[in-house]
Amino acid sequence: MSKGSFAGVLLAALVSAVAPTKADDMAASGAPLDTAIFAGGCFWCVEQAFDEVDGVVETTSGYTGGTVANPTYKQVSAGGTHHQEAVRVRFDPKKVGYTALLDAFWHNIDPLDGGGQFCDRGESYRSVIFVMNDAQRKAAEASKAALEKQLGETIATKIEPAATFYPAEDYHQDYYRKNPVRYKFYKWGCGRAQRLEEIWGKPDKKH
Question: pTM of the entire structure?
Fold first, then answer.
């Protein structure tokens, strides 16, 4: 095989490995998958929260909302990229609607905190709903308004248009599964679970 032929075969293999297939875009129900993006502080915790929602097919931790292409965790954590840690959620709309995802999101963050989330402070940890289209924006705005009435306080979470989403490094994906002891220690030590209980009460199976 010539170098040119080998290069062509290798390129085709790489493209097929990263390009989405029809199966990747279809749920078991046969419905096309939909996408939502949420930032709620540490993406390890947000990823776990959405993995527990029935109808969610895939979650990916990453960075979005900023100005730096292909950012690293070190860059985002240091500040200046304007990115947030976020999670891209792929879901089956026949099993779970966007409104239900918003409800799950609210119950897993502190919506009153505009300076970060729990022990994680700064721009990269602020809570944001990144909307993909007008329908998501309307749903997010209605949900936010209803929550302000429910809590009787101003909601600090922002609603912004979705931007390029950059998947985080491999070691961040499914961190709570790969490192359960460290993850639980971090989540408790950061005060996340305690603060969520203060706002929402003790967790139930729905959230």
Answer: 0.85
